[in-house]
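Need residues for this backbone.
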């Protein structure tokens, strides 16, 4: 049984959020929103969240108010997942208390999971648990992280990185991406998608971090006006060969006008949009069906298993077989 999911066999998921003085409110809210909101009526398993600190019970927020916490480091002994929204003084001017580092080492030693957002990676690195990595942090801190932790494989161009119950994310909104990834691993795509819809965020973002994160590609219902019907038709006919000329005819436009209007509405080209929808359809089939890779390739319009593997790996960062092995056990 995988250590990260063993708790599901006996009780609800327990999440401890470890805060330092002047915590990042956004990243803290991400953890409490993903795991702390009761969505059991929608089929989302229950999680209990406890905010804790070794510097409490009263903490200061950087924006003019205080926080009062009910728990200290003992919450880490209780938790299945420990979240560190951000570190304190990541420039190396702050030495984390030995009690905090020892508690985090004990969390991992007993099989629980440690998750960090943004500069929280500095705290995890200080424990020595990351070893050679991989890890990531906010692009703004990446250079300093690399200077202070040369032994760790720093991945500068990803939204999140990790394994072996140790996970790190890039800055700010990348915390959402990592949380949804972990929910997807624990409970499957349907639960992750339910939470993403409630948060009004994409369940998966393509691309890496820094200022170059690709924008999520919209579905047909996200597009207003006369292009919506054409996009809906495409989503229902992905197995067919699809060309810009054919779509332009359906939209009663010239190919040039259609391409221009399409880019303005979706932020991408028609062919890139179609490719993305085919990859999304392949993800859903890999998660929910027993169809072979060849069958999925044909149904989603890739033509061959080789073409599916090439495009799927480029967009998702994993081969179809590896993706199926990771995400179908909980679907």
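Answer:
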């Amino acid at each position: 049984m995988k250590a990260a999911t063993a708790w599901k066999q006996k009780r609800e998921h327990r999440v401890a959020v470890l805060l330092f003085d002047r915590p990042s409110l956004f990243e803290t809210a991400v953890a409490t929103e993903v795991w702390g909101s009761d969505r059991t009526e929608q089929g989302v398993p229950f999680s209990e969240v406890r905010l804790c600190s070794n510097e409490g019970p009263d903490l200061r927020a950087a924006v003019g108010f205080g926080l009062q916490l009910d728990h200290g480091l003992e919450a880490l002994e209780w938790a299945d997942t420990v979240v560190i929204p951000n570190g304190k003084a990541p420039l190396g001017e702050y030495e984390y208390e030995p009690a905090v580092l020892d508690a985090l080492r004990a969390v991992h030693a007993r099989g629980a999971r440690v998750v960090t957002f943004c500069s929280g990676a500095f705290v995890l690195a200080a424990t020595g648990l990351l070893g050679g990595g991989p890890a990531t942090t906010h692009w703004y801190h990446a250079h300093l992280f690399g200077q202070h932790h040369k032994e760790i494989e720093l991945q500068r161009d990803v939204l999140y990185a990790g394994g072996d119950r140790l996970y790190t994310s890039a800055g700010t909104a990348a915390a959402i991406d990592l949380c949804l990834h972990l929910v997807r691993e624990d409970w499957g795509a349907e639960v992750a998608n339910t939470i993403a819809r409630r948060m009004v965020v994409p369940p998966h973002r393509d691309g890496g971090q820094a200022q170059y994160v690709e924008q999520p590609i919209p579905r047909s219902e996200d597009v207003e006006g006369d292009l919506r019907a054409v996009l809906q038709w495409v989503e229902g006919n992905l197995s067919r060969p699809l060309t810009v000329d054919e779509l332009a005819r359906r939209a009663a436009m010239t190919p040039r006008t259609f391409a221009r209007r399409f880019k303005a509405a979706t932020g991408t080209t028609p062919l890139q949009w179609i490719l993305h929808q085919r990859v999304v359809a392949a993800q859903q089939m890999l998660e929910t069906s027993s169809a072979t890779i060849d069958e999925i390739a044909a149904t989603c319009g890739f033509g061959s298993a080789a073409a599916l593997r090439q495009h799927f790996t480029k967009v998702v960062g994993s081969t179809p077989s590896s993706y199926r092995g990771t995400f179908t056990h909980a679907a």
